[in-house]
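Support reply, case 0932

Customer input (verbatim):
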Amino acid sequence: APAREGAALTFQNLRLEPEARSVRVGGEEVRLTRTEYAILKLLMASPAQVVTKSALLDRIALDTPDCTESSLKTHISNLRRKLREAGAGDCIESVWGIGFKMRQT
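Our regenerated output:
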């Protein structure tokens, strides 16, 4: 079940704090754009569930109204790079033709 709105979300060494609007990997803060943060929050809310591209586009349209499937790929790529550089590894998995989910290790 998804966590309540204000509750911290954790996945492996990744922690998202909605009230502080921060993301940390092993205690170190990771700087994300509003769109990257929104994507990660949606994925971490139900880590075992695949989030479709259309659901992601609907959610991030609130912050980025002109977002397309192509720019979504760019946001995901940037998010993956930042998390990998911070030490979270490759924690976002593509589900070909459907969307994305958190990678279970």
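We compared this against your earlier run and they match. Two observations from our side: The chain has a mean pLDDT of 89. The longest strand covers residues 14-17. Please reopen the case if you see a mismatch on your end.
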